[in-house]
Specification:
This protein is of the alpha/beta class. It folds into two domains: 159 residues, Quinone Oxidoreductase, Chain A, domain 1, CATH 3.90.180.10; 116 residues, NAD(P)-binding Rossmann-like Domain (Rossmann fold, 3-Layer(aba) Sandwich), CATH 3.40.50.720. It contains seven helices and 16 strands. The strands form three sheets. Strands 3, 5, 6, 7, 8, 15 and 16 form a seven-stranded mixed sheet that branches. A six-stranded parallel sheet has the order 11-10-9-12-13-14. A hairpin with an 8-residue loop joins strand 1 and strand 2. Helix 3 packs across helix 4. Bound molecules: NADP nicotinamide-adenine-dinucleotide phosphate.
Length: 302
């Protein structure tokens, strides 16, 4: 099978398409997915650069990628909830397991895989797992009571876009921080009650969910409020009795399945992919993401 392989840490040019062995028949509890698309995420860019080398034991050459949509081709013993032919999506913690998704065939534990929503194209689904799980788990950690006011930074980013929607579904009043006036309409369409351009109101919110690496955004939280950041390198220091925590996404097929249902019920929107690149254009896909300003997901298609 073909896969996008990283041979050495460095620039986008270190990514190349290679012929690698097909997966073995799946072990008990595992399944094999033929990929329709893989999402491209900031973690992939940083891993390629070697920025996570100190905390990962995955050897080079490695296959990058956390997000996947596709069709099940084989299941191991004991896998009963999914069958060959099922359309699925998954988030694979590639840094921990080495199970990258930039490949034609991907073997994963069944417990991290969920049926894909029926109401959107399967390839678009690859833009959902990592960002939606990150948003959901960070909101869970933030644990604000219904009716609280929350600021979401990077509100039009991949994680931010799901955070705004899922916060609203939890009954929170969202102020979305965006970069420019041109982003206002899109933030309101995601369910933000208010949009702040560039600067958030001082000390007005009960909580902050920080996805853009803007540590100063803590100024928007009232004394004694709560902050959860998903950007560990830029998590704000605590001040004024504010609790600050960092959230790290965990694989969770069961929760992904629940969010697929929200998509099919029209309660959660997966925005159309911003760009699609073939495997041979993986380097270009990484350059595009690193350049910033992407509104929606970049997908890699085999
Ligand atoms: N902890 C975890 O488990 C976890 C999981 C997933 C992601 N992450 C991290 O979360 C962050 C967001 O990921 P993502 O996939 O959502 O990335 P993304 O799609 O690039 O979103 C980031 C958003 O923040 C915006 N932004 C950045 N600086 C800004 C500023 N000063 N003012 C206003 N907006 C600003 C960006 O706008 P522009 O595009 O215009 O710059 C972009 O819309 C990344 O650092 C990623 O590594 C962490």
């Amino acid at each position: 099978m073909r896969a996008v392989v990283l041979s050495a840490f460095g620039g986008p040019g270190e990514l190349s398409v290679a012929e690698v062995p097909d997966p073995s028949p799946p072990a008990p509890g595992f399944l094999v997915i033929r990929a329709t698309a893989a999402g491209v995420n900031p973690v992939d860019v940083r891993t390629r650069e070697g920025g996570h080398a100190a905390r990962s034991s995955v050897p080079l050459p490695m296959i990058l990628g956390w997000d996947l949509s596709g069709m099940v081709t084989a299941v191991g013993a004991g896998v009963t909830a999914l069958r060959p032919g099922d359309c699925v999506m998954a988030m694979s913690a590639q840094l921990a397991t080495g199970r990258g998704t930039y490949a034609e065939l991907v073997t994963l534990p069944a417990e991290v895989v969920a049926k894909a929503p029926d109401t959107i194209p399967l390839s678009e689904t690859a833009g959902m797992p990592l960002a939606a799980l990150t948003a959901d788990q960070a909101l869970e950690l933030l644990a604000l009571p219904t009716g609280s006011a929350v600021v979401v930074t990077g509100a039009l980013g991949s994680v931010g876009g799901f955070t705004v929607q899922l916060a609203r579904l939890r009954g929170l009043k969202v102020t979305a921080l965006v970069r420019s006036e041109a982003d206002t309409k899109a933030a309101l369409a995601l369910g933000a009650a208010e949009v702040a351009v560039g600067k958030i109101p001082d000390r007005a919110a009960d909580g902050l969910l920080e996805t853009a690496g803007i540590a100063d955004a803590i100024s928007g939280v009232r004394d004694g409020g709560r902050v959860v950041s998903v950007v560990p390198t830029r998590t704000p220091a605590g001040e004024r009795g504010i609790t600050v925590e960092t959230s790290f996404v965990q694989q969770d097929g069961r929760r992904l399945a629940q969010m697929a249902k929200l998509v099919d019920q029209g309660k959660l929107r997966v925005r159309p992919a911003a760009r699609r690149f073939g495997f041979a254009e993986a380097a270009e896909a990484h350059r595009r993401l690193a350049a910033g300003g992407v509104r929606g997901k970049i997908l890699l298609v085999p």
